[in-house]
Design brief:
The structure is a single chain. This protein is 42% helix and 13% strand. The strands form two sheets. It has an eight-stranded parallel barrel, surrounded by five helices. A two-stranded antiparallel ribbon has the order 1-2. The longest helix has 17 residues. The radius of gyration is 20 Å and the shape is globular. Bound molecules: iron/sulfur cluster (2 copies). One iron/sulfur cluster (SF4) binds next to helix 14.
Length: 399
């Protein structure tokens, strides 16, 4: 296992972090605790020292699971990361209430890496007004948290202002070879690192989409490489190749994947991919973009839409639906993201489009946005949308 340092505090973190969002489950959907504990212990025994969870994962069961899994001396071997559910916070008191409950659930007296969860611009504005800076200062001063950061799913322009708004120790961003221009972007990664933040990366495989299943046309390109690696290893190695990245989180729930990731984490030095390998990844990226239903890059130039449609997120989910083939997950994510459940905002569904055409001239890819949105409605809305929104509100419960 290789380790990289968090710039501000010198902590040596394993470049592979264990994500507890997609633990193995039983048929009834509950965590298969025996197997999951074995996997967490195995990863730690093989050098992983960063474990990431959050309040809503596994319907609230991920944190207490991890608390139990880290008994028997494992707690001292790892840094725990968990997150303040920012969309559920209505007051300064809520922040303390969540953190104190999380310490109890995790059976620990401190959180090593505490994040304000899933920020987008308006959520940040809201939680900032509620006094999150004073809360984080206090939580650090009284030792309940050691390092504080934020995780981010918003637009690139909001990322920089959040980085600048507080003296963060680290941040957590979605980053992979298809998301260089999406969310925080490469620009955001470099900006955060230039400000001395440790950068943890989530979704290196874009929710598994880059590894399973691999479209045959993509696999053909991977096969051209002189060194044979799995699609997952290529995607991970590409992220680790960035010296600005400290840890890459992987939601590992199959023993073979854990072994594969551990092996890759033994060799993934920064800047270790050759120019020819980087070109190969570029070729794969281009192929994925050809296979996508829309060529949206997530640049957001088309925004804002006067009717409130979140065009890039609608198109991203639409692409993912076809590339991952995971209908249930993408349909659920569409309901959760576009209903405003994960922000303080109003609904942003594709069906709100009135075809005014104002977005058309702003799109550098010249996409027929209103027509694409019609297809999004067809594939991702439908009669069960309300039910999915209700389920999302239950999972990401507001109090
Ligand atoms: S065409 Fe639709 S998506 Fe585009 S700006 Fe008008 S309402 Fe918004
Ligand atoms: S629809 Fe066009 S302008 Fe809007 S995010 Fe996608 S590529 Fe950018």
């Amino acid at each position: 296992m290789l380790y990289r340092k968090i710039p501000g505090n010198g902590d040596k973190l394993s470049i592979l972090g264990f994500g507890c969002m997609r633990l193995p489950t039983r048929e009834d959907g509950t965590i298969d605790e025996e197997r999951a504990v074995r996997q967490v212990h195995y990863a730690i025994d093989h050098g992983v020292n960063y474990v990431d969870t959050a309040w809503p994962y596994h319907f609230g069961q991920s944190e207490p699971f991890l608390g139990r899994a880290l008994s028997d001396g494992y707690r001292e071997k790892v840094k725990i990361a968990t997150k303040l559910p920012s969309w559920m916070v209505n007051s300064r008191e809520d922040m303390d209430r969540f953190l104190n409950a999380q310490l109890e659930k995790l059976n620990t007296d401190h959180i090593d890496y505490y994040l304000v969860h899933a920020l987008v611009g308006d959520l940040w504005d809201n939680i900032e007004k509620l006094g999150v800076a004073a809360f984080l200062d206090q939580a650090k001063a009284d030792g309940r948290t050691i390092n504080v950061g934020f995780s981010f799913h918003g637009a690139g322009e909001d990322f920089k202002r959040i980085v600048d708004a507080y003296d963060w120790d680290f941040c957590l961003i979605q980053y992979n070879f298809l998301d260089e221009k999406n969310q925080a972007r490469t620009e955001g990664l470099e900006y955060a690192a230039s400000k001395g933040l440790g950068v943890i990366v989530m979704e290196p495989l874009r929710g598994g989409m880059l590894a399973n299943p691999v479209p045959p046309a993509v696999q053909e390109i991977w096969t051209e490489a002189p060194i044979q690696r799995t699609a997952a290893e290529w995607a991970l190695r590409w992220v680790w190749n960035h010296p600005e990245v400290t840890v890459v989180l992987s939601g590992m729930n199959q023993e073979t994947h854990i072994d594969e990731n551990l092996r890759a984490a033994d060799q993934a030095y920064p800047d270790s991919l050759t120019e020819a390998e980087l070109q190969l990844v570029k070729k794969v990226e281009r192929k994925y973009r050809e296979l996508m239903k829309s060529g949206c890059t997530g640049c957001r130039y088309c925004m804002p839409c006067p009717e409130g449609v979140n065009i890039p997120t609608c198109l991203e989910t639409y692409n993912n639906l076809y590339m991952s083939g995971n209908q249930n997950e993408e349909k659920f994510l569409y309901a959760a993201k576009l209903s405003g459940t994960l922000s303080t905002g109003a609904p942003e569904f594709a069906s709100q489009c009135v075809k005014c055409g104002k977005c058309l001239e702003k799109c550098p890819q010249h996409l027929g946005i209103p027509m694409l949105l019609e297809a999004v409605v067809e594939d991702l809305e439908g009669p069960d949308l309300e039910q999915r929104v209700a389920m999302a509100q239950q999972v990401f419960k507001r109090e």
